[in-house]
Fold this protein.
Amino acid sequence: MMKYVGVDGCKGGGLAVWVINGVWSFALYDEFVALWDKHKDAEAVLVESLLDFLKQERERPMF
């Protein structure tokens, strides 16, 4: 199984889009740890801007 995940932050949390063997899916996560728990089996997790997530973490919970 080949799985790749892309993540971008938004007001509602972190929007993750992933593809597994050509099938696309998406979900909104309100914590980065929840996203990681769901997708730690991925070949790669591509985060649009980790610096934005770190900044948000200081202001409120991750994402």
